[in-house]
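Posting this for the archive.
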Amino acid sequence: MVSRSARRRVTGAPATGRQVANSTLMAGLARAGLLARGIMYALIGIIAIQIALGSAHQQADRSGAVRLVAATPFGSVILWLLVVGFVGLTLWRLSEAIWGAAGPDGRKASARLKSLLRAVLYGFITYGILKFALGLGAPPSTNKQSRDLTSSALKHPGGQILIAIIGVIILGAGLYLAYEAYKAKFLRDMRLGTASAKTKKVVTRLGQVGGISRGAVFACIGVFLIIAAIDAKPGQAKGIDSALREFAKTPLGPWLLALVAIGLVLFGIFSCCEARWRRV
C-alpha cells in the first residue's frame, strides 16, 4: 500500500514543474526570448533593406544577422545575450508544451503541439548562435539548410511527396500567420489594459504589418519547396534569404522587397512590445 508521503512525492513533481513554468523566472526568460527574437527579425529586415538598395554584404537570415552583430564593437556581448534570450524562448515554449500555455485554450493538444514545434525550432536557433559565440563557426544559411534537406529527402523513396507535404505545411502556416496578423488575433495574448489608446493602436499596427510580412516570407518558402519537390531539383528550394530576394524579381522589383523588409523590422519591434505586454 502506497503511503501518504509517497503519494505526495508522486503528485508533487508535476505540481512543482507547473510552479516553475508559472514562475517569475520563467516569465523573465520568456520576455528575454521575445526581445532576442525581436532583435533577430529587425536585423534580418535591415539586411533585406540593404539588399533592396543594392548594398548588402550579408545574407538576410539568422546567419547574416549574427555576423552583423559580431561586427559591432560589443558583438560578443550581444551574441551571448541572444544566446540567453533564445534559451529562455526555448524553455518557455517547452514548458507550454508540457504544462500548457496561458489562456483558455493553452492546454489543448493543438496548442501544446505548436509550442513543442516552436521549442524545437528555437532550440536549433540557440545551438547555432551558441556555436558562433564560442567561435565554432557561424550557423549555416537557411538557403543551404533548405537545399540540403531537400537533397537528402529526394534521395529516398517518397522523398518528393515528403518535401511537397512540408512545403504545403509551411505555405499554410505562412498564410495563417498573415491571416492571424491581419485579424489582430495576437491581441488575445497581450495585456494592454493599462496602456494608452495611442500605444494600443501603435502596437496593433506593428503586429499586423509585421505579422503579414513574416507570413508572406514563410508562404514564399513553402511555394518554392513545393516547386522543388515537383521538379525534383533541390536547387529550387529557398531559405529566408533567397525567398526575400525573390520579392525583388516581381514586377514591383526592389520596392516590394523593401516593403517586406520594413515589415520584418516592424515585426521585430512588435516582438519587443510582446516582451513588455505579452501574457506569459
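The radius of gyration is 20 Å. Residues 7-277 form one domain.
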